[in-house]
Amino acid sequence: MKRLCFSLCLAVAAAARAAVPSAAGPEIPAAENDSTWRPLFTALAGQGGVHSTFTENRWFSVKKTPVVLHGELRHSPTRGLSLRYTRPEEQLMVVDDKGLLMRNGDGRTRTLAADPRAPRIDAALLPVLRFDLPALLQLFTLHAAREGEDWRLDFEPRTPELARHLSVIVVEGSGERVRRLEFRRSAKQRVEVLIEQTQTGVAFTAEEEKKFFR
Fold first, then answer.
1. Residues 94, 80: contact at Cβ < 8 Å?
2. Residue-number span of the structural domain to which 106 is assigned
3. Looking at the 3D structure of the chain, how many domains does it have?
4. What is the pLDDT of residues 2-26, one digit of tens each?
5. Most CB within 10 Å of its CB: which of 16, 38, 105, 207?
6. Residue 39 lies in a domain
């Protein structure tokens, strides 16, 4: 019994040490990336195609509880990001180099072209999910913190255009896995994406690319 209690105490202590940092870390100047954080960015950027399930919580200032959505995330290094919402209703959102595409369950499509002069939050998603460090450092001030295998990255917009849409993007993970994303516009208005089952190195078929990407 004592051995069991001791083992449980060790497990709890290890979990506490491995907790994802709860606050933003120090800023990462570009000159320090090679020795500190570039290995993580390189590993994440080299994962290839990604397919995940997720739960999304949308918090609004007029509601005390979030709107909860469920869906599938697909990320292709060449085709961009695809979010297929399955509940409470079917909807597809594609973010790529051309801009934003949204398609509802009836097949109705709406598009917004990319504007490099005034990038929107959807345009900022691509370099974040690609972990494209040079592109990120042009758009954001980057803060990073680590506790064991767990890490947290805070992206604060550099440009006034992006700052009008959001105050910070937070990406949390463990090892080489992204576990949580948060897009915060204000203290009362934010979107939280909880990443669940994930496959990396996915080769999407031609049928999947046609169905889930542009």
1. yes
2. 22-212
3. 1
4. 333 333 333 333 333 347 888 899 8
5. 38
6. yes
